[in-house]
Write a sequence for this structure.
């Protein structure tokens, strides 16, 4: 049954992607290029190749493709998904602008046509009588009506002949033939139709807006996360632990795109804050230890007075969770697999991600929190915010989570709100506070729009201080 549901969902997704690509092709290629032109052919090829690269980027890792092939497919395939999103959104805005432009241009053309018609039907101005009277008689031309010989009483057609003052007959001047313009060898190309012009303007503006958005979002990810600082008061925290600083980092997503340099930037940023403790809250990797173990090695340089701790996220269970738990332990981090340690002034607990339930390694709150002294403050590391209700039941004072990426790509934050109690920031649920990090990396497209990556220094405050 699950396989049937998965197949149906896959078909719906593929049909939707096909429809979106068809729409994008029509607006950017079909409406703006001539049939048979090179641009039309190039755009049509891209409309088939780019979605295939995206499918390859999303499936190559799960299918066990060589890591070099995953890297080759990841950059264009995942970036195209982000471009597709924002190009489509920009085109939808253009659908509102398109009829307005057409109406404005139609009115302008009608006004110009009316002005030309009025000019063409106008008459030349007549010479004013007073001006003619002012001309001397000897210089004023005279006219006579000449009658040719013929039958009596029958007048021949009259002619109006201008004579000079001396009445001397002048030579007959043949009228000059008007020159015939030869067709120019370089005939200018006809102007595009109004509809074609509007399609190109709207398409160009949509392309510029969509690609600029993706470029800026990619720059933010590749530049590295910024540092945020918040203060969280805990009622049970003793005065001695007042000001304790926890550097919270989640969703690093080391993978085919974000590699060793990305890890190094994050480690350097964390160490610069001089934290008392580092909490790595899941989704560290997107790949196996064999492919990404060296990219994670900079984590060994993390420095904190009370050490660095790690809990699994859902992506660890796609990548070999047991191997990664062993590897981070070798790098000096302490994995908290449904476990708890006592820190100066509070208990620090960690639970496995709920994705581990398929492997019999899901979260066990009883094991992590069941037998502790509830008179002490408790801080829980749990990758997904949805377990907040379990945390409330077990008397947790503060839960540290990630998973949501803050939505990562606007308007994805609205979808994230449907699946998570909190998308980003600090909120209270009963006596438990929940902090959700937006994460330090990115999954899929290395792009963030409206949800910049961050590392948050959570400073615990005692109400007794």
């Amino acid at each position: 049954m699950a396989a049937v549901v998965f197949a149906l969902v896959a078909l719906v997704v593929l049909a939707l992607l096909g429809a979106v690509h068809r729409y994008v092709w029509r607006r950017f290629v079909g409406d703006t290029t001539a049939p048979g032109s090179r641009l039309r052919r190039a755009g049509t090829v891209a409309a088939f190749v780019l979605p295939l690269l995206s499918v390859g980027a999303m499936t190559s890792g799960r299918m066990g493709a060589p890591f070099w092939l995953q890297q080759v497919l990841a950059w264009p395939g995942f970036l195209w998904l982000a471009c597709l999103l924002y190009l489509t959104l920009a085109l939808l805005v253009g659908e509102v602008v398109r009829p307005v432009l057409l109406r404005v241009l139609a009115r302008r053309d009608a006004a110009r046509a009316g002005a030309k018609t009025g000019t063409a039907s106008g008459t030349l101005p007549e010479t004013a009588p007073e001006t003619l009277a002012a001309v001397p008689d000897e210089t004023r031309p005279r006219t006579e009506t000449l009658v040719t010989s013929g039958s009596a009483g029958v007048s021949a057609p009259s002619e109006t002949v201008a004579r000079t003052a001396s009445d001397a007959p002048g030579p007959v001047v043949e009228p000059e033939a008007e020159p015939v313009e030869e067709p120019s060898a370089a005939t200018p190309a006809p102007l595009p139709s109004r509809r074609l012009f509007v399609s190109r303007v709207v398409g160009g503006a949509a392309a510029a807006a969509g690609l600029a958005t993706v470029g800026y979002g990619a720059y933010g990810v590749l530049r590295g996360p910024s540092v945020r600082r918040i203060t969280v008061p805990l009622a049970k925290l003793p005065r001695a632990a007042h000001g304790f600083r926890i550097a919270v980092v989640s969703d690093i997503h080391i993978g085919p795109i974000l590699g060793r340099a990305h890890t190094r930037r994050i480690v350097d940023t964390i160490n610069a804050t001089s934290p008392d403790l580092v909490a790595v809250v899941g989704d560290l990797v997107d790949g196996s230890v064999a492919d990404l173990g060296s990219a994670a090695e900079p984590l060994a340089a993390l420095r904190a007075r009370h050490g660095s701790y790690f809990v699994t996220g859902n992506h660890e269970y796609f990548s070999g969770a047991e191997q990664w738990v062993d590897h981070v332990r070798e790098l000096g981090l302490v994995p908290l697999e449904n476990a708890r340690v006592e820190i100066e002034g509070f208990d620090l607990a960690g639970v496995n991600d709920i994705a581990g339930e398929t492997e019999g390694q899901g979260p066990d709150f009883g094991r992590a929190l069941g037998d502790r002294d509830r008179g002490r403050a408790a801080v829980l590391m749990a990758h997904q915010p949805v377990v907040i209700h379990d945390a409330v039941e077990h008397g947790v004072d503060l839960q540290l989570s990630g998973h949501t990426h803050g939505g990562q790509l606007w308007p994805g934050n609205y979808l994230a709100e449907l699946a998570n109690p909190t998308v980003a920031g600090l909120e209270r649920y009963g006596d438990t506070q929940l902090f959700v990090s937006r994460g330090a990396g990115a999954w899929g497209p290395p792009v963030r729009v409206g949800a910049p990556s961050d590392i948050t220094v959570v400073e615990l405050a005692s109400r007794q201080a």
Remarks:
- The chain is about 40% helix and 15% strand.
- The first strand starts at residue 142 and ends at 145.
- Residues 210 and 226 are 24 Å apart (CA to CA).
- The two ends are 58 Å apart (CA to CA).
